[in-house]
Write a structure and sequence with these properties.
The complex is a heterodimer of chains A (115) and B (114). Chain A contains no helices and twelve strands. Chain A is mostly beta strands. In chain A, the strands form three sheets. In chain A, strands 2, 5, 6, 10, 11 and 12 form a six-stranded mixed β-sheet that branches. Chain A is globular, with a radius of gyration of 14 Å. Chain B is mainly β and 114 residues long. Helices cover 0% and strands 57% of the residues of chain B. In chain B, a hairpin with a 2-residue loop joins β5 and β6. The chains are: A mainly beta (115), B mainly beta (114).
């Protein structure tokens, strides 16, 4: 079974500093990777996704992620964060396990941006 | 925003009572999902549906049942609620079930079982 590990449950950072949220997955087959963001008291919304092609993926709100097959990672980065980026971030992976592409989610990383 | 609504948005109930949560979509998407979100556990899949009357279990399906009689509605039922089912429940939809399609999430239902 596939699994997703988000290595940090909480990441505090000061405004305008860079940030990296880490995500590792366990799968030896083709993977399709997603990052979602959840603002307080809301549902999740898609930040970006990697399906194929360039390993550097750009998303909304200035976020980007890099797919690294050898390290089975898909870390999320932003060069300069804002207070409004304070939210919960979830990494998700899809594989064709059993003919199904049901995504598996990580446990989430809480990004806390301080002024 | 994808047209997904969940009802009720908040509910407090007592142990042993039945509870039904409703997810309604206006996108005509084929796939619908129910997740629960708990601190330290992230999102865990309860059940999903790949078409009208077609459903399957997720990783935490015990104590839950679902029904989908129309494309737009996906119901989650707790037959006899327990305190361990206190959680925030999210419905999600996707146009297809393949690798390319992302999910769109509803606003969530906060359920408290006393």
């Amino acid at each position: 079974a596939q699994s997703v590990t988000q290595l940090d449950s909480q990441v505090p950072v000061f405004e305008e500093a860079p940030v990296e949220l880490r995500c590792n997955y366990s799968s030896s087959v083709s993977v399709y990777l997603f990052w979602y963001v959840q603002y307080p008291n809301q549902g999740l919304q898609l930040l970006l996704k990697y399906l194929s092609g360039s390993t550097l993926v750009k998303g909304i709100n200035g976020f980007e992620a890099e797919f690294n097959k050898s390290q089975t990672s898909f870390h999320l980065r932003k060069p300069s964060v804002h207070i409004s980026d304070t939210a919960e971030y979830f990494c998700a992976v899809k594989t064709p396990a059993g003919g199904s592409y049901i995504p598996t989610f990580g446990r989430g990383t809480s990004l806390i941006v301080h002024p | 925003d994808a047209g997904i609504t969940q009802s009720p948005r908040h509910k407090v109930t007592e142990t042993g009572t039945p509870v039904t949560l409703r997810c309604h979509q206006t996108e005509n998407h084929r796939y619908m999902y129910w997740y629960r979100q708990d601190p330290g556990h992230g999102l865990r899949l309860i059940h999903y549906s790949y078409g009208v009357k077609d459903t399957d279990k997720g990783e935490v399906s015990d104590g839950y049942s679902v029904s989908r009689s129309k494309t737009e509605d996906f119901l989650l039922t707790l037959e006899s609620a327990t305190s361990s089912q206190t959680s925030v429940y999210f419905c999600a939809i996707s146009e297809k079930g393949g690798e390319y399609n992302e999910q769109f999430f509803g606003p969530g239902t906060r359920l408290t079982v006393l």
